[in-house]
Amino acid sequence: MIEAEILDQFGATQKTLRKGDVLFAEGEPAEFYYQIIRGELRMINRIEDGSDFIQGIFQAGQSLGEPPLFGQFPYPSTAVASQPAAVYKLPYAALTELLRTHFDIHQRFLITLSRRLQYKSMQAKEMSSYSADHQLLTLLTYFKRQAGNPPAYQVLLTRQELGDLTGLRVETVIRTVKQLEQAGKLTLQDGKIIL
Question: Which domains does the chain have, with CATH numbers?
Answer without folding.
Answer: 4-102 (2.60.120.10), 130-194 (1.10.10.10)
